[in-house]
Amino acid sequence: MIEAQNLSRRYGDFTAVDGISFSVREGEILGMLGPNGAGKTTTIRMITGFLPPTSGRVTVDGKDLLDSPREARRQLGYLPENVALYTEMRVREYLAYRARLEGLSRAEAAQAIPVAIERCLLGDVRDQIIGTLSKGYRQRVGLATAILHNPRVLVLDEPTVGLDPRQIISIRELIRELGRQHTLLLSTHILPEVELLCDRVVIIDGGRIIAEGTPQSLRESWTGNPSIRVTLKDGPADAGEALDRIPGVVGIALLADGAWRLECERGADPREEIFRAAVANGWTLLELARERGATLEDIFVRLTTHDAADAAVTPSMPDEQEVVS
Amino acid sequence: MNAVLATYLRELRAYFFSPLAYVVLFFFLVINGFIFIGMVSFLSDPRAQGGSPMTYFIPATGFMSLLILGVALTMRLISEELRSGSIEVLMTAPVTEGQVVAGKYLAVLTFYAFLWLPTLAYPLVISAYEKMDWGPVAAGYFGLLALGAYLLAVGVFASSVTRSQLLAAIITAVLILLLFLLSWFGDVFNGAVTKQVFEYLNLGTHLDEFAKGIVDTRRLVYYGSGTLFFLFLATRALEDRKWR
Fold first, then answer.
1. Test the B interface: residue of A86, A105, A108, A147 with most B CBs within 10 Å
2. pLDDT (tens digit, 9 = 90+) per residue, A181-220?
């Protein structure tokens, strides 16, 4: 739906975005993740046509943003980071104004406005003056204007920033709801948001894409093999050798607290075999648990912390020391 | 066209719903009321030389009204969009900078004309007691509208170059003052052509002409091209914002 090719943007000598290419596929929710100042907002402004790129090009639904800006923009709904509304207008009036600005006919607007009000749960405040609304409601008004002309793509820049926790939850629910009918590009620096909402993630730092994939695949590619923690009563001497022979186990380690960590093949889950081995050998199984892999947060912090960029890829577990390997 | 109309209606609504408009309207009418009373009592004096009331009224109110309204009505027009960031949702809609400038300009021009409307009561009052020559009245009001159209374009331009309303107001005020006092600069130069150019551009004496009932097409050409020039600059200023 959105195709960004080699986008760059310089402000004077400063390069905010440095050759970013990515695509947003039809129907997905793509998360754009990055620390503050990574170039997310600049990228988004180029995609929405607010800023022209210094180099590179953007197409929305196959239409080039610079060659045919109107056609491209018609397919875009945009919620900027700071939702600036005309505070002296009433919600309904503002939506009517936006509908006209988007080029909707009177009849189309009469149909679209109640739908937008309903979808963004603005029914209670439709006649209220925007200046009197809370930030959460203003965000919803912003979302309502973004979906008014029924665009195929919604671009949301930090939609939950500055909201209280309850407002955040309701805006996220709304976003997930909108994601069913629109292709979504969502920028955020809040990780749980990405894990909760996004089908795919692009991680940006220093104006470049440093990682890309589904939250699942990112986690897998950055955490190494899955591992299982096994604790046996009295630590039988032959246990290590027996555990190592179980299919799917590629390496074992005895930890300082007497537990074994079994490194497994990707996708393998040999817990049942471990249980059977314990029964067959007469061991008492005290603990059998899959270890939590790295979260997206670990990956994000590792990728975007510059002085630790060269650090090892496997997550370090400071509370456990390996004594055998 | 739809986008121009949408911007126009929204700005017009903003004028009528903001307290600033009514404050301006109130003081505008108070001051003009005083000018009218002063003019009537002056002309009622048996020793007065007489003459068309418009030749007294227009010069008395003209410069001050144009300066104050030119500044007060235009200063927030675009700079407020730049400051609040609403420019971002505005310019990502399928509209062009030119359409936005046109819509906003037409709205301020409409509101400006609306402000003068109540003062038409003055000639009506006089015509109830005296025979009124409507020619100079029509010419005088036409002149106020034409000159206003030009100076409001100057204000729209000033508002498009800064996110500060105050700075926009100052720039507008200085430009309007300059346009009224250009003949002074003309005197500085000895060259006849330079002097002529400055005299042509100078607005100071134009209102007197209109008040006498003279509609000089050279003036109209000048205002028309000046209006387009400053609106063009405003559009370019909005476009330029992207490239910095």
1. A86
2. 899 999 988 777 888 888 998 988 888 888 888 887 777 7
Inter-chain residue contact A102 with B94, CB threshold 8 Å: yes
- Domain layout of chain A by residue ranges: 2-219, 221-308
Residue B66's domain comprises: 2-243
For residue A308, the tally of other CB atoms under 10 A from its CB is 11
Q: How far is B103 from chain A (nearest CA, A)?
A: 11
Identify all chain B residues contacting A88, using CB atoms and an 8 Å cutoff: 14, 17-18
Q: What is the pLDDT of residues A90-104, one digit of tens each?
A: 999 999 999 999 889
User: How many domains does the structure of chain B reveal?
Assistant: 1
CA dihedral of A51, A188, A217, A184, whole degrees rounded to 10? -60
According to DSSP H, which parts of chain B are helical? 2-17, 19-44, 54-74, 79-84, 86-91, 97-116, 121-129, 134-160, 165-188, 192-201, 206-211, 217-240
- Comparing alpha-carbon positions, the chain B residue that sits nearest to A151 is B93
The CATH architecture of the domain made up of A221-308 is: 2-Layer Sandwich (3.30)
Confidence of residue B150 (pLDDT cuts 50, 70, 90): very high
Q: Which residues of A touch B86 (CB under 8 A)?
A: 84-86
